[in-house]
Amino acid sequence: MDARKQKLIAMREALEDSAGTGDDPAAVVQLDQARVGRLSRMDALQAQAMAKASGQRRVAQLREIDAALRRIDEGSYGNCERCEEPVDPRRLDADPTARLCIDCASRSE
Q1: Whole-model pTM?
Q2: Could you tell me if 89 and 71 lie in one domain?
């Protein structure tokens, strides 16, 4: 359990560190056509959309990590949230934030 908790903490730190690196690609794209050509502006808008989606994924991953850490503290980590059976340790090794066993996850898709 400690190894998975450490892995979750490391994942959270990596996500938090990656949030603060580089320029802000989600910043407002300038409308000055003389300074930035039409294609360059389209590239900037696409980069802005990708940065926004990446930020949303990062926030969702942080929420999942925090939820898994709470489950560890509460003692419910490793149990399926639907059927309450133990989640296969190999599944937790692959995805330490997994909430469902493989059977329940398959049924929900």
Answers
A1: 0.74
A2: no
Number of domains in the chain: 2
Can you list the pairs that 62-68 forms with residues at least 24 positions away whose Cβ atoms lie under 8 Å?
62/12, 62/15, 62/16, 64/97, 65/8, 65/11, 65/12, 65/15, 65/96, 65/97, 66/12, 67/97, 67/99, 68/8, 68/96, 68/97, 68/99
Average pLDDT (76-81) is 95
If asked whether residues 56 and 87 sit together in one domain, one would say no
Report the candidate in 64, 72, 88 with the shortest Cα–Cα distance to residue 6: 72
State yes or no: pLDDT of 48 exceeds 80: yes
Range of the domain at 16: 2-77
pLDDT: is 47 or 66 the higher one?
A: 66
Per-residue pLDDT, 57: 94
- Same-domain pairing of 49 and 29: yes
